[in-house]
Amino acid sequence: MDFVNTPPCVQQCTDSEVWSNSKHFNQNTYGVNSDQTDIMTEIMTNGPVEACFSVYQDFLAYKSGVYQYDGSSQYLGGHCVKIRGWGVDSSGNPYWLCNNSWTTTWGDSGMFKILRGSDECGIEDDVVAGMPSSK
Asked: How many domains would you assign to the chain?
């Protein structure tokens, strides 16, 4: 397995916002029903959600398209990501659009699409969201 050095955290905004004012905190956290319609409603109403899923060896090589477990790769462990949206690709495959934490050099500039509606790798089993609080 090849490892990529993590870039340093700059702790500054790329726009005119002040770094310390741009942080957001949660007041409480709650589970979201695993039904894809409920997850979509949560994203539309309150913004991105967090989801945990099983990672297999083939996921590490993801570059583009809609990810589906190949059925034979080794299980590596669990991982959590931000689901920020959804769509359907040109072949008709429904997907969740996710941000990964493995730097922008991994996947599609740090993002990936994973099959939606079939609980691919358990992605729809463990979804949580949070209500923002004041800073």
From this structure: 1
Cα separation of 125 and 51, whole Å?
8
Which letter does DSSP use for residue 6 in this model?
Answer: P
Tell me the pLDDT tens digit for each residue of 98-123: 999 998 889 999 999 999 999 999 99
Domain that holds residue 94: 25-133
Residue 107's CATH number: 3.90.70.10
Kindly give the parts of the chain with pLDDT less than 70: 1-7, 23-26, 132-135
Question: Is 30 a domain residue?
Answer: yes
Both tokens of residue 48? Answer: 């991105």
Residue with tokens 């913004």: 47
First-to-last C-alpha distance (Å) of the chain: 40
Residue 5 domain-assigned (yes or no): no
Residues with Cβ within 8 Å of 31's Cβ and at least 6 positions away in sequence, in order, are 127, 128
Judged on CB neighbours under 10 Å (0-12, 13-18, 19+), 82 is middle
Cβ–Cβ contacts within 10 Å for residue 21, how many? 8
